[in-house]
Design a protein that fits this description.
The chain is of the alpha+beta class. It has 2 domains: 17-252, Barwin-like endoglucanases (Beta Barrel); 278-355, Immunoglobulins (Immunoglobulin-like). It is built from 7 helices and 16 strands. The strands form 3 sheets. It has a 6-stranded mixed barrel with strand order 1-6-3-5-4-7. It has a 5-stranded mixed sheet with strand order 8-16-15-12-13, covered by helices on one side. A hairpin with a 2-residue loop joins β2 and β3 (86-96). The longest helix has 15 residues, at 2-16.
Length: 356
């Protein structure tokens, strides 16, 4: 009896003990394996999936994976995102070697590189915390490895993603490693500086995910350059934890869940007015330079508009809602029929606005 009690205590400690591991990345577009019934679901229920246009699918087992010729894909809001109140903390979904769908893990980066001497990028990531939720059971994922969902992170063994967004497979970078693997070749691996790696990766993100309907994909790709410091296969320690409710909600429902808080795609946390920049928001109002954008009930209100400026509004699916040039009035109210996220292009600025 005494030996049984000691064994039980040892097992309980091991479940929550820190273990060593490393992070890889991918985005193949396939239906998550945790989106099938009959899996060992730890928390959150069954993972969601979306159609080719990123609309949430209601049924589960009737929809085959896009990687098997079916209509079910990874939803684009399963991108990683920063904690709005802690710049050194972020959240993501990942393929894990475990059979526990919906299990969450707390990952702490230690500045190392799984395959050799650390670069400046790995050192810059040191001390940050990533909370991941298992959405896929990776058959090619090793013990201690977490394959994080990041657009442009590499296709791996399957590719439903390039035909989904209408690009050639080669545009998404190396099969394993994606954009960052190409940047490593260009920058000569550890010879590249942190800033050079971040710039290279951002440029590739912005070039490939340049359509308004791909704003979420670009946001997730730029996360890897900005928060993740463009670190290739960094080492870390991890332990199982209880899942935060926000990850559970994003795991289960929706397809265009907004990133929490007002978070810029730039690493500084300030709004950018450079061409093609995306300012994802959840709050009802945001300012970008002199321009102010406010979401009201069934409308988007733009203030401080320069005269004769081209304004376009799109749904996340790419449908154009509005296109015109501003007149002398500096305030413009654009009516929308449904609640949701809209992409607003004003001259060389691009905003993403949630109408609640």
């Amino acid at each position: 009896m005494r030996n049984f009690v000691l064994l039980a205590i040892t097992l309980a400690i091991n479940v929550y003990a820190q273990q060593s591991g490393w992070i890889s990345r991918y985005w193949d577009g396939c239906k998550p394996s945790c989106a099938w019934s009959g899996k060992n679901q730890v928390s959150g229920g069954i993972c969601k999936s979306c159609d080719k246009s990123n609309n949430s699918l209601a049924s589960i087992d009737n929809n085959r994976s896009s990687c098997e010729g079916g209509n079910a894909y990874t939803c684009w809001d399963m991108i990683p995102f920063r904690d709005p109140s802690d710049a050194n903390k972020a959240y993501a979904f990942a393929a894990t070697p475990s059979d526990k769908c919906g299990q969450c893990y707390e990952i702490k980066f230690n500045g190392g590189f799984q395959h050799g001497t650390a670069y400046a990028t790995h050192k810059a990531l040191n001390g940050k915390t990533l909370i991941v939720m298992a959405s896929n059971m990776g058959g090619d994922v090793n013990q201690g490895q977490f394959d994080v969902l990041i657009p442009g992170g590499g296709l791996g063994n399957y590719d439903a993603f390039s035909p989904q967004i209408g690009v050639n497979t080669s545009a998404l970078g190396a099969q394993r490693g994606g954009f960052l693997a190409d940047c490593e070749t260009t920058l000569q691996w550890d010879r590249g500086t942190l800033e050079q790696y971040q710039t290279c990766l951002r440029n590739k993100c912005n070039q490939v995910f340049n359509k308004p309907e791909h704003a979420q994909l670009k946001e997730g790709c730029n996360f890897y350059a900005d928060w993740f410091m463009a670190a290739n296969n960094p080492t870390m320690t991890y332990k199982e934890i209880t899942c935060p409710q926000y990850l559970i909600d994003r795991y289960k429902t929706g397809s265009n869940t907004p990133t929490p808080g007002a978070i810029s795609s730039s690493s500084t946390g300030t709004n950018s007015s450079s061409s093609g920049s995306v300012v994802p928001i959840r709050l009802p109002q945001i300012a970008s330079g002199n321009l102010r954008a406010q979401a009201t009930t069934n409308a988007i209100v733009l203030e401080n508009l320069p005269s004769n400026t081209k304004i376009e509004v799109y749904s996340l699916q790419g449908k154009q809602i509005y296109s015109n040039h501003s007149e002398n009035s500096q305030i413009l109210k654009i009516s929308v029929q449904t609640k949701g996220i809209y992409v607003v292009k004003v001259s060389n600025q691009t905003l993403r606005i949630l109408v609640m």
